[in-house]
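Support case: user asked for a sample of complex input and structure output to validate their parser. Sending the pair below.
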Amino acid sequence: MSTPVFIAGAGVISAIGNNIAENLAALENGAAGMGEMQYLHSVHRHKLPVAEVKMSNAELAELAGMPAHISRTALLSAIAAKEALQHAAIENFSKLRTGFISANTVGGMDKTEDFFVDFSGDPGKGRLRNIIHHECGAATELVADILGVKNYISTISTACSSSANAIFFGARLIRQNMLDVVIAGGTDALTKFTLNGFNTLMIVDHHYCQPFDENRRGLNLGEGAGYTVLVSEQVAASLKNDPVCVLSGYCNANDAYHQTASSPDGTGSYLAMKGALQQSGLQSGQIDYINLHGTGTQNNDIAEGTAIKMLFEGHYPPMSSTKSFTGHTLGASGGIEAVFSTLAIQHGLIYPNLRLETPMKALPFIPETHFKKGAAIRHVLSNSFGFGGNCSSLIFSKA
Amino acid sequence: MFIQATAGISPQPSFSALLTEPAVYAGNRLNCIEPDYGQIIDPKMIRRMSRIIKMGVAAAMDCLKTSATEMPGAIITGTAYGCLADTEVFLSKMVENREELLTPTAFIQSTHNTVGAQIALLLKCHNYNNTFVHRGFSFESALLDAITLLQEQHALTVLVGGIDELTDTSFRLLSRFGLYKKDISSNRALYDGAAKGTIAGEGAAFFLLSAEPSGKDYAQLNGLYTFYKPGDIAEIEKNIQSFLSAHGIGVNDVDLVITGQNGNVNEDGIYKQLAQTTFKGKACARFKHLCGEYPTAASFALWLAANIIKTGVVPSCTSVSSDNKRPGRILIYNHYQNTHHALYLLSVC
Amino acid sequence: MADLKQQIIAQLNLKDLKPEDIGDDQPLFVEGLGLDSIDALELIVLLQQEYKIKLASAEEGQHVFRSVRTMAQYITEHQPKTV
């Protein structure tokens, strides 16, 4: 591969912690983030567990340094993006060509759904302040402005693969020599809209989800944000701390099978993983850990598992779904899991797939169930697959 | 980059009709003239599609047909608002039924990448598929992605489109924000007077791009540049100059400037100033009286520019000042709400 | 069963069909009427809304929604007595 793109920093907020240190501690302690909803007001409160970030909007706003009335999506984004940028510690940031490419699927829906309660009764009613940030791009701009990013700003929304696509679009713009630094990833807040939407598909687990279990019942929705700071080779060389890893491979492919369901043989997943491997110049046997998409739905896990079987037959690397900790954070999941992947390389970690009781009979491999430290992790594959057959795979490699 | 083909669904009938009889609208709202979708989209798939999906898919299919391309190397869409009608249906039912007895169809289709995904599904296209949703940069982001994919030789052809729909609810809400003129006799009067507000619009415009000429291309797309929240007019002028010089030309080499004037006195000031400075004496055209204002309206301008280059004719309904020359090079300058600024450069092949 | 057919047409937006176009025993899915898994979810809500019958899972729907006749039978057997 030609010019490498380095990862100089990362930031994350999820149901298992408000920053990298807290997330790492929870991953090590096997502490999942699901529970009865505390902050979202839904009639499903006692029925459907969710993985909420454990802070009110007012508390998030204080941490983000933003007003509390804006969308939770933007607040979560600001916290993780600021951590990532701080972590990267790029001294001459303001003099570089910078970009912020953030993904989300809900935008300001958390506020819009409140607005609609008044608006539905009377179209002249409802506070306009609650829909001013409805568009997905609004959250990105609010955060770009506080980060001081100006040269390039964009938002991607391809359902559950959104932030994986944001990361690799950012990397491509660096490789094209259009930008020097890109903060890329995604954010999504829990909303009644998405919770009810997934509930109509009958794929929300009423208990804590069990990805890749024979008896899996569905997913738990989560929320959060995750960002990586991508830098060019030149910027990487100027950093005080050596970058931990490079983004060595990426690919997006479409399943082109069904609006929401994956094809039984996981065509899209297979093509995405294969394409990412090809681009990185690696053989499947060189992958040391797979961070699975692993939502816990019947359909995803068998499709993804079948595609892995086709590609990794004979030498299955350790793998796990960290959604068993964070829930499915939709547009943020690719970003959060990219952060977990870089941390796996940095600290030699393999994360457990929680609550795995009965391995899937149709698959010849079993996800990792124990936390492992000190493993030699050079290459990590991270999968993100979404509605509309949108499948993306990223590969992170030790720098 | 070459524009092999383009197709649009807009409040206007077609490019050839634009030359002679552009559609006239009373009031401040322009909705698309829709074709008979049954001729273009598989009836089995059509029954679930809301209007924006039909518009987007139909424009995409028409574009592929024009270029005789069966399978594009990538499908990329840009939409600021996404599938509004489906979002509203699900949201309203959720509020009315208090989160009970909801059905999945509207939710599934409310996802922002639905149009791109439906095109892939219809074509059984496994290639790269992406959707950008960044306000007034949605279409430009999609186009930049397309251009870089071609430059990286990741794809030989890319299908790229800009789509946004105007619904009763979005029109009502955006009106409450004061976006639209309250008393306008028709879209033809958009630029008269000095009042606030514009007219509402919508549309779907698709393009088939390739890095290599096909011999039957509409136009060459030489470049695209976007800038966010410029500090002042001087910064805008500087950006325009450096965009042109990056392509080895100056303003004098541009035959026609298409601007995004929208009749809003608060937003047109930039164009008026530029008409006295950077664009002084240039042949100029405008388009928002034809399609209305919406975040991806520049995709209509690109459709217009590609057609002008291909036919060599500037429709009189678009022309502000003319030198009666056949335009060989067109610059589009559009800004959305003083925030998202975009420059496009096109030339004959 | 004609009522049920009308409800199916309305719920699934099968605009081109009339109730008499759907055979009582015609398979609803795939090779029959060509419905898919999203339609199955829509039919589950239809049962709940019109007949107050709640299916436990999407899988159960596969048997219930084989044809209009199987649906009608299921409704007769499971409808709450107090209407």
